[in-house]
C-alpha cells in the first residue's frame, strides 16, 4: 500500500456498507454452527434450503426458477468469473455499458475475448438503443448489464431494457444481468428483473450478492441463476466452489426476512444521496447527477481541469480522504469522474465536502 493511502482518516474508496448484517442473519449462522451436521461439512452444489430461498425471493419479480437453477458462490465475483470464463473465448466479443463495474470489462480479455463499450448518456447515464446497435457485432456473444448501475446509479427503464432484450435476441447474445443493488432503488422507480422480459429468461444469467443488500461483505456469499439451457455450459469450468454451508443458512434467513433492516438501510442511503449530491453541486467546478439506485455519487470534475486519478491522490495526501478514480469504471465517458460510495453518515460526508472545498482553493 502506498504511503498516501495508508495515512487517510476517511475512506470512501470501496463499497463496504457501514451497517452490520441484520441480527436474525447472524443468529441463523451461529445456530447453524452449533447444530453442526450438514451445516459444517461439504456442500459442493449448494444447500437446498438456500436455493429454495433464492427461488422464492426472485419470484417477486415474476420469474419462476427451480432450485436446480441456483448456484451459490463465495461472493458475486466468482459468479461473474464463472459466467465469463465459460461463455467467452478467443475471437468472441463482450458488450458492456460504460461506465460499469471494472470486473465486467477487465475479465473477458483474460480469456481472449474483446470488449465493446457502449457509452451511456453522460447527462443522466441512460442508454441510447441506436448507440447499442452500433456497438454490437457478429462476434458479440455476451452482454453484461449492471442494473442498478455501479458506479453511475442508473436504474434502467422498461423501455431501455426491452431495447436491450431486442438486440440480444436479434444477435443471439447471452445477457449477464448483474443485479446486486436491486434493493436500493429510489423515488418512484422500480427494479425490473431482466429475465422477466418476454423470452429473456432462457438467455439470461442473473448474478446476485449479499454484500450490499444485506451488508454482508465479509461473509462472501453470492449466487448466479442459470436457465437449463445455459447451466451445462457454466459447469464446464468450475471456477466457483460453493460457499461455506452455515453462511448459506444465514443467506436463507436474509432472503426470507424480516426486511426492516434492508428498508432502514435504503432510507438512510436515500437521505445521504439527497444531502451529498446537493452538497457536491454547491462546489464550484463539480457537477453531480442525482443517481437513481445503488449508493454511489459519481460527480463530474472535468471542469476543474485536474485528471481524476491525480485528484484522488492529491486529495488523499492533503486532506486525508480516499476516494475512487471514476475512470477505473470504463474508458468511454468515465474519465473525469470520481466514485464516492455513501457508506458513511451525513456528518462524515459533510466533512468530505468541506475538505474538498478547502483543497480546491489550493489548486
Protein traits:
363 residues, alpha/beta, Aspartate Aminotransferase, domain 1, Aspartate Aminotransferase, domain 2, 2 domains, 3-stranded antiparallel sheet, 12 helices, 36% helix, globular
Describe what you observe in this structure.
- The protein is α/β, with parallel strands linked by helices.
- Helix content is 36%, strand content 14%.
- The chain folds into 2 domains: 3-20 and 260-360, Aspartate Aminotransferase, domain 1 (Alpha-Beta Complex), CATH 3.90.1150; 23-256, Type I PLP-dependent aspartate aminotransferase-like (Major domain) (Aspartate Aminotransferase, domain 2), CATH 3.40.640.10.
- The protein is built from 12 helices and 12 strands.
- The longest helix has 21 residues, at 260-280.
- The chain is globular, with a radius of gyration of 20 Å.
- The two termini are 26 Å apart.
Strand content: 5-15%
CATH superfamily of the largest domain: Type I PLP-dependent aspartate aminotransferase-like (Major domain)
Count of individual helical segments: 12
According to CATH, what is the topology of the largest domain? Aspartate Aminotransferase, domain 2
Give the oligomeric state of the chains in this entry, treating copies of one chain as homo and distinct chains as hetero: single chain
How many independent structural domains?
2
What is the 3D shape? globular
The arrangement of helices and strands along the chain is HEHHEHEHEHEHEEEHHHEHEEEH
The rounded distance between the terminal residues' Cα atoms is 26 Å
Helix/strand-derived category reads alpha/beta
Task: Give the strand order of the largest sheet, numbering strands 1, 2, ... along the chain.
Answer: 2-8-7-6-5-3-4
What share of the residues lie within helices? 25-40%
Mean of residue pLDDT values? 95
Rg (CA only): 20 Å
For the record, the CATH architecture of the largest domain stands as 3-Layer(aba) Sandwich
Count of individual beta strands: 12
Give the uncertain stretches in residue-range form: none
CATH class assignment of the largest domain: Alpha Beta
